[in-house]
Amino acid sequence: CARLHERAARSQEAVRASRREAGECRRQLQARLVEMESLRGAHQSLERQLQELEERHNAEAAGLQDTIGQLEDNLRNTKNEMARHLREYQDLLNVKMALDIEIAAYRKLLEGEETLFNMGSGGLPSLNSLPSPTYSFQPRSFSSST
Predict the structure, then answer these.
(1) Distance, CA of 58 to CA of 74 (rounded, Å)
(2) What is the pTM of this model?
(3) 83 CB burial (10 A radius; 0-12, 13-18, 19+)
(4) 3-state class of 37 per DSSP?
(5) Mean of the pLDDT values across residues 62-86?
(6) CA dihedral in degrees (55, 61, 63, 65; nearest 10)?
(7) Distance of CA 120 to the CA centre of its chain
(8) How many CA atoms lie within 13 A of 12 on its CB side?
(9) Which helix (H) or strand (E) is 126 found in, with range?
(10) Is 39 helix (H, G, I), strand (E, B) or coil?
């Protein structure tokens, strides 16, 4: 009876130890579950932040692509405008050179006539005392249709 009583006491002690160990395991399990839920919440929060960052990045990239497109259009328009101005400048330069050639030809003609006039009027001293004529050029306006 004493041995049974002793065994029962040891068994009760073993049961208590097992219960303490089971309680400790439950507390650890509960702590791990709380930690796991906390980590799940942090994971979900990070996933949302990542998604928001991706959306923001995509929107910013789309905005930058639009800006690049606009800048390329502006550059193309500016190049076309510069080419048009260059053509107009070349046209005006060609007109100027043609007018310079024409003016030079008229000047030679007038100088030749003046020389003939001076040679032919040797007997008229009053005409020789006149100041030599000056010629002024009145530019005409030209329009380019380019």
Answers:
(1) 24
(2) 0.48
(3) exposed
(4) helix
(5) 98
(6) -150
(7) 75
(8) 6
(9) helix 125-128
(10) helix
Q: Within 10 Å of residue 132's Cβ, how many Cβ atoms? A: 7
Q: DSSP class of residue 130?
A: S
Give Cβ neighbours of residue 139 (< 8 Å, ≥ 6 apart).
Answer: 99
Residue 120: the pLDDT is 72
The pLDDT tens digits of the residues spanning 85-114 come to 999 999 999 999 999 999 999 999 998 888
pLDDT (tens digit per residue) in 119-131: 876 544 444 444 4
In the numeric block, which tokens belong to residue 119? 């040679």
List the end-to-end C-alpha distance of the chain, in Å, as a whole number: 126
* 121 close to 128: Cβ distance less than 8 angstroms: yes
Concatenate the DSSP letters of all residues of 50-112 into one string.
Answer: HHHHHHHHHHHHHHHHHHHHHHHHHHHHHHHHHHHHHHHHHHHHHHHHHHHHHHHHHHHHHHH
